[in-house]
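Hey, quick one: can you model this chain's 3D structure?
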Amino acid sequence: MVYCPECKENTDTVTDGSSTCCSKCGKVLEEGIIVSEISFMEGSGGGASMVGQFVSGTSARFRGRGAPGYQRDSREQTIENARRRIQQVAGSLRMGNHHVEAAQRLYMLAIQHNFIRGRRAIHVVAACLYIVCRRERTPHMLIDFADVLRTNVFILGQTFLKFCRLLNLQLPLVDPSLYIQRFASRLEFEEKTEAVANTALRVVARMRRDWIQTGRRPAGICGAALLIASRLHGFRRTQKEIISVVHVCDVTLRKRLVEFEETPTGGLTAEEFETIDLEEECDPPAYTNGILKLKENLEKAKNKKELLDESTEDIDLEMTEAISSVEMSLVEEDEKKRKLFLEQRKQSIIEKQKERDAKRKWREENPDLPIAEVIETNSTEQVGEEDTFSDIDDDELDGYLNSNEEANIKNEIWTELNRDYLELMAERSKLEAENGPKPPKKRRKTTARRDNEPADSPAEATANALKNKVSARINHSKLHEIFAADEIFDPKSTKMEKMAFKSEGEDEVDPFQFPTHEEEEYWEDNDD
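Sure thing. Here's the predicted structure for all 528 residues.
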């Protein structure tokens, strides 16, 4: 199904020759279809001929069905312009024709993959030529293309990397020795150009063995090697002259020189370097720098720890002194508060005792005062709100706990205030010791009350009431006759009931007869 813009939905299609139409509205959706199968037709003379026309991926499409020829379109113009630009750039960098042809084939791949869409064609041309230079190992760098095209080298590098990633190209690594001869010729060493170049190649080989070349740009390696080789052969070439030829930063050049100086080869003289070839290899500079940084960090951490320990000791000493001074001040303040509190308590006790003495004296002077007024005055003085101690904290509560010294002071105060009472008690104890102790008073025997259970009838309720509190003026036999309940009023059940009855054969007792003197004493002794 194909989307029809007229019907505005996906519809079925009908194919007729080289066109596709909508099955609903009949709108031609596709025209001039290119098919992969081959068909033949018989001509008027009886011969067979192929129907249609071959269309390649790089050629122009035909004008229509039965068109007699081709039409020159934008694709051919793009390819022609790219071919011309590739030849111009290759001529500026002195590259051969086979380099141009290889770059043209790469450009055709870029067109087929639509890589040139949205990019400048000259950048794609430079990327194709640089890929050919990397494959053929020619002494051309990407910065050379940037100088020729007068564009940013990083933009060219970005285009080059994306194109390699698109085609999945595996290019060989750049060898710095390819550029030594080229750079040496620009530094004007005259007849010693070959000797300086050979020495620089030896330096590059030694850097590769000591892991200085790995992961570094070739321009920096070549600049350091040419500077060392020129000094070995007596040429005073400055860093600025080397930088202008190899196109690197002065910092990069100095780093390569320092890394080479730290290797065993850097300690050899000019004669020893030409004759001796050390077999020892060094660790990569990145690894060595990492070890040094790790040692520095450990040393810094150790120093910080020592300083921290010293500062901690000083802080602990200062804290100890501060805490001790604070504790001493707190102890002094607590002692002052305690003395003030004791003094206040002593004064309050003395005042209360004076008030009691005044009241006692007033009562002695007014013995005829009614007892109710005395009780009322005492009760009004004692009534007050209940104290829950919610407004007292722990420190204040600790202040109320008496120490041994405070207890002795209070004991002396109490003894002084209650001297009369103590003397009276001493005299009583002396008299008791002489006359002997008084006999203890007899206590009344009390009987435990039984729990009252709900009664089922008036007779049972009456019996329960009489059991709890029995009067001697009630005749239980008459009550027994009234309620006629032998199981409730049993003459033999309790002692109290037995006293209300006469023995058999005697005269009946009046229920309202007064009890005798012995019965009254008995009921008084056993009354709850």
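One thing worth noting: The CA atoms of residues 320 and 326 lie 10 Å apart.
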